[in-house]
Design goal:
The structure is a homodimer. Chain A is mainly alpha-helical and about 500 residues long. Chain A has helices at about 5-20, 25-30, 35-55, 65-95, 100-115, 130-155, 165-170, 180-205, 210-220, 240-255, 255-265, 270-275, 275-300, 305-320, 335-345, 360-375, 395-420, 425-435, 455-470, 475-480; strands at about 385, 390. The radius of gyration of chain A is 22 Å and the shape is globular. Mean pLDDT of chain A is about 90; it is low at about 165-175. Bound molecules: potassium ion (2 copies). Chains A, B: It comes from Lampropedia cohaerens.
Chain lengths: ~500, ~500
């Protein structure tokens, strides 16, 4: 238990920063005059006070963090911060007389900070702008955290084979201690993330969105979160231009941010396209979108231009685990949404804010499967697993495989729980998959035209657990729950 | 291509033996006077003639078989023998004026020889006894082949981690050459299989079945095939005694036959219960059955005695991949059939005639997952994967993982194909899973009260491929399809 104080000390700092970010909806509430400012102000003050008090109590525990602290910290951030983030949501709901349970609020907060973008709220069009801003802003903040998690922390800990791209980031960063390394990496990644955010906001704005809409949908796009301020999601704008802009930014944001960062440092953009994972991610999304479009055209759902417009946007949105929709694609023949859901399991890059198994792991798995076939045909051939020029170590393959095992096990067990609770098989399976992939809309009654509000508290809890497991790459959460983790 | 002649030479011998086994339905046809003897006799003669001609042509190719020949031989046996086995089925169908396509007949033959037990025929109660005898007898013959495949051939080739129990069989068998080893193993396994068959037949007969019913249902039980002579499957007998007998034999037949064989040789029955996999298989089936029974009781589907009777029998039948049913369990709340289907993926032992991932592989996977968690918590601890007393080599783990990858990939891709062909998601997924596990009945429209006759030719082909992939442990079939396999 002596691991907890130094971790909580860092966490308390993050809590203060997170509470301060409530200034954004507070400001919006004041400007729009929706009368919700007391909720945000109270929450802000409570958060700052709690964080400061915790920080003060633990001031003696300033020490260098070890890798095991990293595991504890990421669990604390994604499990405990949403607990605090419930406060403004519940206060606002109370002010609006909107019925919302604590579990519903926690679901909403986890969904935001994990960039899942599933929602239990309906009637978004009539919600005050300050609330929608806060919901989408949480995704953007979550995205900042996820980048550090995915590029710096999990690879350093060797969670789920992330070691495979450790070398990539280690290149420009020489420091070997945990905190300075993470700090340096964070600065670089956030520079990329901020530039992308500014570009996306300006593009949406120039493309015809109002400033507030542009801001909120930029938050949801570059973080691959996919929450919209409208029940009709991105379909609200009905604009091929805006859809194209969103597609470009979803494609860009689905790739490894460490690549952009390294390419910027070395002033060498060719490095980006040389990356095997990046090419695979982009190819999968574009070919997947094309396949769905052609299928929709063949099945006479749309004429060719509309098939391309709807097929490409919704497939790229789901495959990148963003989760925007421009139409209720559950009305399409079931092969299309099923393929899109399948793509969401494996398309996003390992260093992005996307979810699922990640393309890097898929490539390693495919190479490992190929190696086994070659070994059977020619037992004496030496035959390492390669990714581009890099030979992948057996340890990495084992980590990747453990990750996939836990992923499948979580999918099966959580789906069974939902079926046991009375949901039909398709809804249960797709809700767990969409949550585990931090994607958002599922099939059945949790589809893009519906919301998670139809689920009861137990079912919401299962989905919340799935989002957390998916975001923490399962293993980080499992290991902290092991009793032997706490024995030194 | 020079690998083919020695393999086809052995295959031609097996073809002759298989053709001669048509003597059984021929005799039944003569005794019952159903007039179908010309179909069986013609088929028998054609098979013997083809086999003998092939054998004669290849008489010069008598040579010691290499492991790669083993891969080719198992593919030839399960892909080509059913092709010949279509002949009597189609001739009988023609004599009976029963409409049956070639693909339907091939499906039926593959289903028999892989001990899947799915059927495209309906109105079984009115089929001539000789045909039902032949269908169930094919399962029993298939079981003989599968035992050799699972205990001797695949482990020797290292397919899917079968190396893990190679030592177990290698114990009593000293010869290191392929053919004599396999011959010796075969004799031992078949002695076990025959004893079990005789015991099962006598038990069914003593329990009240007619001699012919006892014979046919013995064939389907000890092979874990699950084809019945009745549309109501095992429910036809409505006898708790017979159901109990069947349960005992399904439990016994789900365990590793090599264990029984070694225990018999060493006159030491304690070895059997000492086996980790065996205990896990039996525990899973019994606890699974109990769980389903209690669930049915809680959900008020039955009173407690009936819940136990129906829950235990159907769960053990599905988990062991037999596929008998005593009621239409799709009428139960969906959690129960779903859990049963899930158990069928992983309960049967690696050295049995069952299908799916197999308990041995599951145990190795669980150990590997545990190892990865321990490594994350304590990076410096050395931490091998153990099964009982045995340390599992990394090569074995890699093989197991490759198997599971292909299993999941086959499941996903073949399900997508069925969805693309117009089936609903639940039917598509469960039909592929039931075929891949060589189990039989699925959910949706291919449930226990229905048959695969509702599928069209394309859908039947997909299921046939799934049965073959499942039976040949996927990798054996994939490797033979690789172009590089044919380059030396
Ligand atoms: K999302
Ligand atoms: K079966």
């Amino acid at each position: 238990m002596r691991d907890l104080p130094p971790v909580l000390r860092v966490f308390s700092g993050l809590l203060v920063l997170f509470a301060l970010s409530l200034a954004a909806p507070l400001l919006t509430a004041v400007v729009t005059g929706d009368g919700l400012w007391p909720s945000y102000l109270t929450s802000l003050l409570v958060g700052v006070a709690m964080g400061a008090a915790l920080f003060w109590r633990l001031r003696a525990h300033r020490q260098e963090l070890q890798p095991r602290h990293g595991l504890l910290l990421v669990c604390a951030v994604w499990v405990l911060l949403p607990l605090y983030a419930c406060l403004p949501i519940l206060l606002v709901a109370a002010q609006l007389d909107y019925p919302l349970s604590f579990l519903g609020a926690y679901f909403e907060a986890v969904s935001g900070l994990t960039t899942t973008g599933a929602t239990v709220l309906s009637g978004l069009d009539h919600m005050p702008a300050s609330l929608n801003l806060w919901r989408t802003f949480m995704q953007w903040l979550g995205g900042m955290g996820i980048l550090i998690l995915a590029v710096a922390i999990l690879p350093m800990l060797g969670v789920g084979g992330g070691q495979a791209f450790r070398a990539e980031v280690a290149g420009p960063i020489k420091d070997t201690k945990l905190t300075p390394r993470i700090t340096q990496t964070a600065k670089g990644l956030w520079a990329v993330y901020l530039s992308m955010s500014v570009a996306c906001f300006l593009a949406f704005w120039a493309g015809g969105m109002g400033a507030l809409d542009a801001l909120m949908h930029m938050f949801a796009t570059v973080s691959l979160g996919g929450l919209s301020a409208y029940d009709a999601s991105f379909g609200q704008f009905d604009s091929p231009l805006l859809e194209t802009i969103a597609m470009v930014f979803m494609l860009v944001a689905s790739c490894n941010f460490a690549l952009y960062f390294v390419a910027m440092r070395k002033h060498d953009l060719r490095r980006i396209w040389a990356d095997v994972e990046m090419r695979a991610t982009l190819t999968t999304m574009l070919l997947g979108g094309l396949l769905v479009s052609v299928y929709l055209w063949i099945m006479d759902v749309y004429d060719l231009p509309h098939a391309l417009r709807f097929g490409m946007f919704n497939t790229i949105s789901i495959a990148s685990t963003t989760g925007f929709a421009t139409t209720d694609y559950l009305a399409w023949p079931v092969f299309a949404p099923l393929l899109m859901l399948l793509l969401s399991c494996m398309t996003a890059s390992a260093g992005s804010t996307g979810g699922g198994i990640k393309m890097l792991r898929l490539l390693i798995l495919l190479q490992q499967a190929r190696r086994e076939l070659v070994r059977l045909a020619h037992p004496r051939v030496i035959n390492p697993v390669r990714l581009g020029q890099t030979v992948i170590d057996n340890h990495v393959i084992f980590s990747v495989l453990a990750f996939v095992l836990f992923y499948v096990a979580a999918l099966v067990l959580l789906s069974l729980l939902l079926v046991l609770s009375g949901l039909d098989l398709v809804t249960a399976f797709s809700a767990v998959l969409a949550s585990l992939n931090c994607m958002g809309p599922g099939l059945g009654v949790v589809g893009p035209a519906s919301s998670y509000a139809v689920l009861n508290d137990f079912q919401l809890t299962v989905c919340t657990v799935a989002m957390l497991l998916g975001r923490l790459e399962i293993l980080s959460m499992m290991v902290v729950l092991m009793p032997s983790f706490w024995r030194r």
